[in-house]
Amino acid sequence: MAKNIYGLGTYDTITRNGYTYVRFRKTYGNERKEFTGATKQEVDKKVREFEKNPIFKSSQQYLKMNLGDFIQECLKEFANEQRDLSLATNTNNLNSLKRIRERDLGKLQLGRVEAKNLTSYLLELRDKPYAKATINKDYFLIKRCLERAKVRGIIKENPADKVAPIKEKEVIKPTWQNSIK
Question: pTM score, two decimals?
Answer without folding.
Answer: 0.63
